[in-house]
From TrEMBL:
<comment type="similarity">
    <text>Belongs to the cytochrome P450 family.</text>
</comment>
<dbReference type="InterPro" id="IPR002397">
    <property type="entry name" value="Cyt_P450_B"/>
</dbReference>
<dbReference type="InterPro" id="IPR036396">
    <property type="entry name" value="Cyt_P450_sf"/>
</dbReference>
<protein>
    <submittedName>
        <fullName>Cytochrome P450</fullName>
    </submittedName>
</protein>
Length: 421
């Protein structure tokens, strides 16, 4: 296995390229299964900002330091969000695997300045009007329905059957899609394929179908508005076009599903494998909220985020950053930065992590609260219905997904005493 500190073989970077000697490939089994070890090695070798190679040996910077990530995300004048600034586009093919993450799209994700404030303001207002108690009730009903499908069997695989399915259905409910509508199951299926495609599935075709279905949803809500996020976005005085609403709704759906599902699964893994969260003498479990907060520090669902692009030549973490360079926000590495935890113990009692971002482009204020409602309700309902839930494999047999961006398990097989449906 290649040492993470070794320069990438077969590539001779130009003097102005960040992929100088010692650049680390963000790939490989070791990275996928034990990224924290590589973050430590990269810190020792490079400090708070490390040169890295993305797929196809495309150079970028990985920002590892907590303070440095905070600086980048707080200085939009130096590190902007519009990926069209990237100085590497001439070397990137159209079918580049990371194109969905960095290819410019007309959504709130890539806007800047006043336009970003306008678009983000619409999303914030639309999400802020969500009744959290009503959402918890809805998520409880969704959870009960999903649990009822496997409760009588005594065993199941929680990722596909529960942790991924529940946020998907909660997300489309927030956007105004009735659970019993003909589009509900199709939206769930296409969103899943778009975010987590299998070898025999067409991600591009699924995204096109998703965009068409969201477009039809917008047309319907124009004619028959309701108490949902889509209707509130359409009625907002900022006057977003249907295309803008569609792009931003897809961004909302993707964020709710992908990150919240991994948050749920990582939280369940912690509860099922860590003795601190075992059954206590009264038969109850220690705080689900504590487990969810610990996950955000130590196994954050969004490990790395691409990214920011340098507006002009500058310095960061002792490295020379050139105009147009790509900076990847190492959220997981920053959360475990030894400079903020000098004794090596991560104090999970506070919420100063960077898992929801920071600065102007962080998750809109209500989003983390709503994600917490979804995740907490999902776990608490499951544990109440199946109190003797336990892993059906050894903890070391669990396998993480092969992604440098998200942190989540491939499968979480469990067993339990069969319960009434």
């Amino acid at each position: 296995m290649t040492d993470p500190a070794d320069p990438a073989p077969g590539r001779t970077p130009s003097p102005g390229c960040p992929a100088h000697a010692g650049a680390v490939r963000l790939s490989g089994l070791e990275y996928q299964q034990t990224p924290a070890q590589l973050y430590r090695a990269m810190r020792r070798e490079h400090g708070a900002v490390a040169p890295v190679l993305l797929d196809g040996d495309i150079p970028a910077w990985l920002v590892l330091g907590y303070a440095e990530v905070g600086y980048v995300t707080s200085h939009d004048d130096l590190f902007a969000r519009d990926s069209r600034r990237w100085n590497q586009w001439s070397d990137i093919p159209d079918d580049w695997p990371l194109m969905p993450f960095v290819g410019y799209q007309p959504s709130v994700m890539f806007t800047e300045g006043a336009e970003h404030q306008r678009r983000a303001g619409v999303i914030t207002d639309a999400l802020e009007a969500v009744d959290q108690f009503e959402l918890a009730h809805t998520c409880g009903e969704i959870a009960e329905g999903l649990i009822g499908r496997f409760a009588g069997s005594g065993r199941t695989e929680l990722i596909a059957d529960y942790a991924h399915a529940l946020p998907l259905r909660a997300a489309i409910h927030l956007c105004g899609v009735a659970a019993d509508s003909t589009d509900a199951d199709a939206l769930v299926r296409d969103l899943r394929i778009t975010l987590d495609t299998a070898p025999d599935e067409d991600q591009v075709a699924a995204y096109q179908r998703l965009a068409e279905r969201v477009g039809r949803l917008i047309e319907d809500k124009r004619e028959r508005p309701g108490p949902d996020v889509t209707s509130r976005m359409l009625a907002h005085p900022a006057g977003l076009t249907d295309e803008e609403v569609r792009a931003d709704l897809i961004a909302i759906l993707s964020a709710v599903q992908q990150q919240t599902s991994n948050w749920i699964s990582n939280g369940l893994r912690l509860l099922l494998t860590d003795d601190r969260f075992a059954l206590d003498v009264s038969g109850g479990r220690l705080s689900v909220g504590q487990a969810l907060n610990e996950v955000l520090w130590l196994d954050t669902p969004l490990q790395n985020f691409t990214g920011r692009w340098a507006v002009r030549d500058t310095q960061l973490g002792g490295k020379r950053i050139r105009e147009g360079d790509c900076l990847i926000l190492g959220l997981a590495a920053a959360n475990t930065d030894p400079l903020i935890w000098p004794e090596g113990h991560v104090g999970t009692e506070n919420s100063a992590h960077l898992s929801f971002g920071n600065g102007e482009h962080r998750c809109p204020y209500p989003a983390p609260l709503l994600a917490d409602v979804i995740a907490r309700t999902a776990i608490e309902t499951l544990l109440e219905r199946l109190p003797d839930l336990e892993l059906s494999v050894e903890p070391h047999e669990l396998i993480w997904r092969t992604s440098i961006w998200s942190r989540g398990l491939l499968a979480l097989p469990v067993r339990f005493t069969p319960a009434p449906r």
